[in-house]
């Protein structure tokens, strides 16, 4: 597949999405499910089973069978991740699908109550990096192993952030984690020319994450920025950014591992 060719989601597609229980993940699940062709299969991952079930019910259709699994993605071992993926495929062969798609959407903000110059709790940092970087990499590796014989049908979307490329005071956990995660996917794209890799940055979106910033942040500028976003009504709705993500993905107009932002051509 050429790096600029469009991506056709209308065939039989296998799609994995992390962080699917709410927010942007739920919205992406809903939007992608509308585009998938007959005999498609979706696997939704997060911890909250009830909310996953709600997302699944929004995605299920004649074309799309939806499975979900409650997994703590900060702790799952490689074997567990591989098992979850393999079980979801049931008796389907990896060559059955025209496209094998994974959205790495899971994410958290980390400790917003510690000043960057006072960060020293390595265990806390490690836990943050486990969920947001290390386990994202290991899940991606399990996915690639399963589909290694049909790599040219693999498409990977990493949900990144402006914070991966622009420092934001008060968010050292988040910015450094997003930067590391994005760079991993860029390096992967550099090596795996047949795999399509997109780093999609959704813009500021009205989700639980924003409320967490307002509740926890000690950095005045950070609180001001997000308070202004909220008060001026400039936050995007999850559906808006999910639709844009689909547009970018389907157009295929991104270079390997490119960081594409919601606002890039708005
Ligand atoms: N909101 C924004 O303005 C914004 C801007 C730029 C980028 N982003 C990125 O977009 C992505 C989604 O953000 P969001 O705003 O939709 O956040 P959110 O509402 O907080 O959702 C986070 C998702 O991650 C899941 N999750 C968290 N910890 C988990 C764990 N240990 N194991 C498994 N799943 C876990 C949550 O599900 P459970 O709690 O059920 O496990 C939830 O589904 C993130 O990568 C974020 O960095 C967001």
UniProtKB/TrEMBL annotation:
Its EC number is 1.1.1.153. It is found in: Cytoplasm. Transmembrane segments: none annotated. Its main location: cytoplasm. It comes from the Eukaryota. It holds the Pfam family adh_short. It is an enzyme of class 1 (oxidoreductase). Keywords: Cytoplasm, NADP, Oxidoreductase. PANTHER family: SEPIAPTERIN REDUCTASE. Belongs to the sepiapterin reductase family. This is Sepiapterin reductase. The gene is LOC128199948.
């Amino acid at each position: 597949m050429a790096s600029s060719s469009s991506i056709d989601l209308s065939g039989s597609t296998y799609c994995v999405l992390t962080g699917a229980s709410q927010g942007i993940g739920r919205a992406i699940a809903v939007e992608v499910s509308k585009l998938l062709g007959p005999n498609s299969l979706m696997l939704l991952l997060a911890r909250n089973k009830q909310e996953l079930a709600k997302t699944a019910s929004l995605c299920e259709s004649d074309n799309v069978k939806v499975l979900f699994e409650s997994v703590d993605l900060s702790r799952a071992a490689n074997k567990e991740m591989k098992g979850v993926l393999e079980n979801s495929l049931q008796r389907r062969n990896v060559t059955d699908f025209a496209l094998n798609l994974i959205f790495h959407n899971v994410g958290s903000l980390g400790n917003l109550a510690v000043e960057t110059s006072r960060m020293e709790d390595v265990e806390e940092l490690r836990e943050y990096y486990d969920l947001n970087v290390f386990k994202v990499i290991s899940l991606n590796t399990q996915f690639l192993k399963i589909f290694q014989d049909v790599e040219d049908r693999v498409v990977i979307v990493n949900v990144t952030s402006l914070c991966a490329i622009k420092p934001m005071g008060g968010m050292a956990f988040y910015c450094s984690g997003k930067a590391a995660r994005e760079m991993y996917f860029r390096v992967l794209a550099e090596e795996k020319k047949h795999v399509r890799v997109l780093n999609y940055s959704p813009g500021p979106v009205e989700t639980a994450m924003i409320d967490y910033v307002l509740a926890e942040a000690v950095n005045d500028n950070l609180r001001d920025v997000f308070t202004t976003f909220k008060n001026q009504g400039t936050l995007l709705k999850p559906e808006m950014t999910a639709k844009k993500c689909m547009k970018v993905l389907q157009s295929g107009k991104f270079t390997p591992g490119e960081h594409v932002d919601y606002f890039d051509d708005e």
